[in-house]
Amino acid sequence: MPSNALIEVNKLEKKYGDNEVLKEIDGVVEPGQVICVIGPSGSGKSTFLRCLNLLEQPTAGHVMFEGKDTQSFTEDELTTMRERMGMVFQNFNLFPNMTVLENLKLAPIRVKHMSDAEAGEKALNLLKRVGLGEKADVYPASLSGGQQQRVAIARALAMDPEVLLFDEPTSALDPEMVGEVLAVMKELAEEGMTMVVVTHEMGFAREVADQVWFMADGYILEKNEPNELFNHPQNERTQDFISKIIGN
Ligand SMILES: Nc1ncnc2c1ncn2[C@@H]1O[C@H](COP(=O)(O)OP(=O)(O)OP(=O)(O)O)[C@@H](O)[C@H]1O
User: Which helix (H) or strand (E) element contains residue 229?
Assistant: First the structure.
């Protein structure tokens, strides 16, 4: 395997009963890369993402993290790996009964054993970074969806992750809020954050991704640089998908 792979997936398979959702998936994520995973609804994109941090247990195949096979991980090693892979969900998943600041401080205090003051300072800096320095003491419900998602990104960053996994981070947002979240993600990409992003935002994939992976029926049918994949798709299914979303 390439020595610089952060994540490597070999012959990954996932079944739910008889439903084969992921089939023979191979892929490498290198440090600093932004991978966008695109494809039709139900093609297995979210399941693939959740297999990367073993929120879903693969049925077969291997997920390697920093060259180590996660299958051989103890529970403690798995927990550590998940802490190093931040995840941002479609529906933000903030704790509603905690203020924005408390949401951000929780994991650094509990998991990294940071002092309250240290975690608070870090949280405030991260909130400023996502443009929400003024919102530290409010509750998530008083924020717009776009603001809540930016808080969720800041919360993931509070653990200093090695990689961020995004599961359709803008799909639950009103259209006018999509841009503010994508702008934060683009900034992170420019700062060198390694990211795997399941998305329907083709403009973002085209502009920000180093590689776009096209999934259909549980296979990754095509991987390429965005310009190649969008302008010269090789696989018939990719051509069909792209002509449907871009052609009209
Ligand atoms: N926990 C589960 N139990 C059973 N089947 C599941 C589960 N999670 C996903 N599936 C099935 O796996 C298939 C792929 O789902 P997945 O959510 O990964 O697709 P997707 O490409 O992310 O779709 P979308 O773009 O609509 O979110 C679907 O047929 C879905 O019904």
Answer: helix 226-231
